[in-house]
Each structure stands twice: as C-alpha cells, then as structure tokens.
Model the fold of this input.
Amino acid sequence: MRNKIISILLIAILFTAFGCKKPVKRKSESNKDELVSVFVQQVQPQSITDYVKLSGRLESASKIDFMSEVSGNIEKIYKNLGDYVVAGDSLGRLKENDFVYKLKQAKFSLKSSELNYEITTNNKEISETLFKENSISFIEYNQSLSNWNNAKASLEMAKSSVETAKRNYENSIFVAPISGYISYLPVSNGQHINMGQQICRIVQLKKMKIKTGVTESDIISLNKNDAVKIYYDKLNLYLEGFISGLGKDLIPGKNSYPIEIIVDNSDKKLLPGMIVEATIKTLNHKKSILLPVDAIQKYFDTNYVYCASNNIAVKKEVIISKVIDNSVIIKSGLDFGELVIVSGTDELSDGTKLKVQTK
Done:
C-alpha cells in the first residue's frame, strides 16, 4: 500500500513539471519575422578601364660587356667604377713592349718577303724566256716557278702577320665602344688577362628596359608601342614607357609570353636591377554592370548575388566577365534597374525579409 502511494505521488510531480513548462520556439521560427538591415545598389550602366599590371627588373636598354681581344699584363686602367665615358675614350692599356716588338718583327719579315718575292719573280720571268728557247730543262723551269709560288705565299703570310700585329697593338689599348657609365670593372693595374676576359661593362641609363612575361588572356589585348605607366615605390617615382616587343610563343618552361618595355629614364634616377611596376591600359568597358567584389557570393563554382524585390531577398545566379581591382563586371544574370544587396549579406537566404537602405 505504501509503495502504491509513493508511485502515485511521483507521477503527479512529473505531470506538474512537464505540464507547466512553456513551449520553446525554434530559433528559425523566432527570427522568421525579423527584418535584416541591408544596403543596396541599383544596377546602372557604368564604365571602367581595364589594365594589365605586371612587375619586372630593369636593365639598361644599351650596354656593352667590353672584352679584351688580346692577352697581356695591364699597364694602366684610366677610369674608375661609376665613371661616365664617351665613345672613343681610352679606358686603359696593356704593357706595349711586347706588342711593339712583335709589330716591328712582322714588318721586318714583310720587307724580307717582299725582297724574296721580287727576286723569284725576276727569276721566273728569265726562266720562262729560257725555257721557250729550249735553253733550260722543264725541271729547271718548274723549280723557278715553284720558288715564285712559295715566295708569293710567304709574302701574303707576312702581310697578314703585319695586320695581326697592328690589330693586336691597337687592341692592347682599351677604347670605349659606346658612351655610358662603367657599371662593372673587375680588373686592376698589373693584372694578367687572357683573350676574351672581361675588362668592364658600360651601360647607358637614359633608356631602360623591362623583360618579363604576360598571360595568354593579357597578350591578346596588348600591342607594340602601347603606352606604359612605370612606378618605382622606393622613390615614389612615376615614369613613361612603351611596349617595344611582344613574343609570339611561350617563354621556355613557363606559361607566359615574353614582353619588352622601354622606359624613359632621362633623369637617370633608376638603375639596372631595380624592380618596378608597369601598368598598361587595354580596354574601356562601357555600359557595363559593375558590382563591388564583396557583393558576390560563391557556392562551389556558382556565383550569385542577392537582390531586393519588394523588401524580400531574391537569390540570383550571375556570370562574371572580369574582375578589375575591387569591381566585378557582370556578363549576365542581372538587368539594369535591379537593386543588388552590396552589404549585410551574411544573414541572408532566399526569401529573407529586408530593411532596405541605399548607400
């Protein structure tokens, strides 16, 4: 009997507890009628200019790596690193004694060869006359002819030796081939150098060059001689340039096409090796639908926006043509006059009630 009474009391307590508890609305149900505050932008025809932006390392548009054409010991270097030289200026020279001696020796050999050639020529002419008169044998005539041919060959070799000795003597004096600044000078007085060894590098600074690459989507919108804006951030410096060349094939090992840009550096503030930014104007998109990047939502490969229609959020799929800076050009999916939600999209879904504000 006692156990029965206890059971009845427990049942009564549970019934009272559950019966008095108020029903809890779901979060979605409680928020269903709440208005979400958003900002909208009316779709209107707009214009925007498209640019190709790239960066690259500067190099001199005209430079010479000056190499020695002869071997020898450096007697004197007349210029210093960073000096400006004019085409024809003497940069330095090798010790001339050996070159002067070799030139004198070559000239002496030439005189000897000229004398020998003159003698063998006279002998050949005499032998021809005697051979016609049958006064000498064919063997004797042929010997005089052979001597003349040998003397002629020796004379040509002697002339060539003199020219080589002259050229070597001239090349022992280093003469600037172009005007410009000495940007590299790896040699010094007394140093022995070999033929083909670099003496210096001379660069011109009034015009610089950028060699870099552009994508296939950019190459089709660029043309030779297009104007280029150059910016160097370290000096906050803006300069002008133009496209001097466009490659018709990919850069080996890369997925980009070569492009060369000439930069007007008349003030000589930029130096080879500096990295600059280049901006090239390509297209002016007129009467386009433009939206801020933040207005675009993404679900996997699908792009969409929310529009406000009668204070209700409407989800619309859009096709993007291009992204330029912080703006998106819409190819399709929207019409002029529609109100696109550009801020406050985080809490939206299709059908959300809105409190619409205009930016």
User: Anything to note?
Assistant: Residues 97-132 form the longest helix (36 residues).
